[in-house]
């Protein structure tokens, strides 16, 4: 495993820690959240992809791109961005470079690269081509799904795996949220999966954003696109970081993305080829059972999926229809039902990922791969209906792949200009 230090930001930037001071000096009073969108097309002067960063206006949900964005993602073809539960850092997965780049989030919402963690392809390293990642609710572990175990390549395809990185907790901003050596699994430093793991979900902490209860048990759900697609299920030990497989369940024809509701009772997977949403009920031991009245129809080629912070509505991007659709969750049995006609909203071309900002849970954003844009909508928390926000869509870097939002003012890392 190779760990390379990008550097302690730049000489032009001095670092200080503002813990416990409630400092939001670098963020505007009108900024509700920050939105980060990974873009896979190479940036100017670099073969790497980018990260487009925006301020979210608290009155309208409109986006203002930060003047120094897009940032270099630190690798080629970034496919995912994951927010640490403590809101201090994001981790970007660069698929073609087989690495993970850790960025600190400043009080100004800007991203500051810190460390690069290379998966590698040979020897004892963890594998290649990361596809997705999650973090448990206690902020102890980053779990990364990757395409190939050591010894396999695109020319010699084979099974993938999961690398479990411990996340260091510290009051020192130069150490906090850094990743340790992946957890050992016997002689391996990864946990095997089947062919082509493309997405990963984790049971949330039901008391978030408060500390997780002592009885919190994270379950990991890995979507595999093989000839017999499945969702592979694991239990994560918070004390050791080890994964124990607890079951598998069928996953349609071409499963794509996965989401779990905030109560940890229901899991949903988009099936792109069959234009369906597959619903599962979470059993007491964390295993999944398919909902008896599913799967459920969607529009054309559903890809991204998210659930609003209240756990009442599912939103799905339909790549070939260039829309996002809303579904109400039946609290009793998890069945999704289509929100009336204005629960479907047009997006830019080729929406592939969707997120809802965490502060108010009323603004929704999609990354649109083909026309290089971000679409913004406001959701009605009473009905789930969607309406376009002011000035949507917004320009992004080339070929956006995914997005994540973080609450403004939630960051202890402060960048002070000289």
List keywords for this structure.
single chain; 418 residues; mainly beta; Methylamine Dehydrogenase, Chain H; 5-stranded antiparallel sheet; globular; disordered N terminus; disordered C terminus
Description:
The protein has 418 residues and is an all-beta fold. It has one domain (2-314, 405-416): Methylamine Dehydrogenase, Chain H, CATH 2.130.10. It has no helices and 35 strands. It has strands at residues 2-5, 14-17, 31-39, 50-57, 63-65, 71-72, 78-83, 89-94, 99-105, 111-118, 128-135, 141-148, 159-166, 191-195, 197-202, 219-224, 230-236, 243-250, 255-260, 266-271, 276-282, 288-290, 296-297, 302-307, 313-318, 323-329, 336-338, 344-346, 351-356, 363-368, 373-379, 386-388, 394-395, 400-407, 413-416. The strands form eight sheets. A five-stranded antiparallel β-sheet has the order 1-10-9-8-7, with no helix packed on it. Strand 20 (266-271) and strand 21 form a beta hairpin. It is globular. The model is unreliable at 1-28 and 412-418 (pLDDT under 50).
């Amino acid at each position: 495993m190779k760990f390379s230090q990008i550097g302690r930001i730049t000489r032009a930037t001095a670092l200080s820690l503002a813990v416990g001071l409630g400092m939001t000096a670098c963020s505007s009073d009108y900024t509700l959240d920050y939105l980060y969108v990974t873009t896979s097309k190479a940036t100017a002067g670099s073969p790497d992809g980018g990260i487009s960063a925006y301020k979210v206006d608290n009155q309208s949900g409109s986006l203002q791109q930060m003047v120094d964005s897009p940032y270099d993602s630190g690798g080629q073809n970034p496919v995912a961005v994951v927010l640490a539960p403590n809101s201090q850092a994001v981790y970007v997965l660069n698929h073609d470079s087989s690495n993970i780049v850790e960025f600190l989030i400043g009080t100004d919402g800007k991203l500051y690269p810190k460390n690069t963690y290379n998966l590698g392809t040979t020897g004892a390293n963890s594998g290649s081509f990361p596809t997705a990642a999650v973090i448990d609710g206690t902020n102890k572990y980053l779990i990364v799904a990757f395409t190939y175990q050591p010894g396999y390549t695109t020319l010699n395809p084979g099974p993938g795996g999961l690398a479990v990185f411990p996340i260091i907790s510290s009051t020192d901003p130069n150490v906090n949220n850094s990743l340790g050596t992946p957890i050992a699994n016997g002689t391996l430093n990864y946990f095997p999966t089947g062919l082509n793991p493309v997405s990963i979900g984790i049971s949330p902490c039901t008391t978030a954003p408060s500390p997780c209860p002592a009885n919190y048990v994270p379950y990991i759900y890995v979507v595999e696109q093989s000839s017999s697609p499945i969702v592979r299920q694991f239990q994560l030990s918070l004390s050791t970081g080890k994964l124990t497989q607890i079951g598998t369940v069928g996953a349609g024809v071409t499963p794509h993305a996965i989401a779990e509701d905030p109560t940890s009772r229901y899991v949903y997977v988009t099936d792109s080829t069959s234009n369906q949403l597959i619903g599962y009920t979470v059993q007491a031991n964390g295993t999944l059972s398919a909902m008896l009245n599913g799967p459920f129809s969607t529009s054309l080629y559903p890809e991204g999926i998210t659930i609003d912070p209240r756990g009442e509505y599912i939103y799905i991007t339909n790549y070939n229809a260039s829309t996002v659709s809303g579904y109400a969750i039946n609290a009793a049995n998890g069945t999704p039902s289509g929100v009336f006609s204005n629960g479907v909203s047009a997006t830019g071309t080729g929406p592939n990922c969707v997120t809802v900002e965490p502060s108010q849970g009323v603004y929704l954003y999609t990354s649109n791969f083909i026309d290089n844009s971000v679409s913004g909508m406001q959701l009605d928390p009473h009905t789930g209906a969607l309406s376009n926000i002011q000035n949507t869509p917004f320009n992004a870097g080339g070929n956006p792949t995914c997005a994540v939002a973080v609450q403004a003012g939630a960051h202890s890392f402060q960048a002070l200009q000289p």
